[in-house]
Amino acid sequence: MKKAMIEKALELINQDMKMSTLGLVDEDGYPFVSATLAFKNTGLKEFWISTGLDSKKVACINNNNKAGICYYNDRINFTASGTAEVITDTQIKEDMWEEWMLNYYDSPTLELYCLIKVTVNNVRIFMNGENIDLAIDDIKETA
What is the pTM of this model? Predict the structure, then answer.
């Protein structure tokens, strides 16, 4: 059942649920939650978000890199927690660049443009009235 839930979660994330929420901790220790477009993922292990270096998301990560990401719809709730990292490496930004980003930034080499990489430590999937909790070792083995 665990493997089937993971596969279904990945299918829905990759096909149906691009919008996500990103939870961070602000400079005063309070939660900061932002609707984001987690546009790429590596299984359930890494999630990538584009933003600007001047965003509150980046300020939060620079202060405290603990993060949570959530996808949901009427069939599934996928919540992961881990650590966030601000990526400014030009080559990575160019490799991750997608056409829709032109709505926000002129170029992947623009200094203001950056990426957030969320590396997952654990996951909770709720589907069909059932919860499943996965630690990073479970995620590596199954996803």
Answer: 0.88
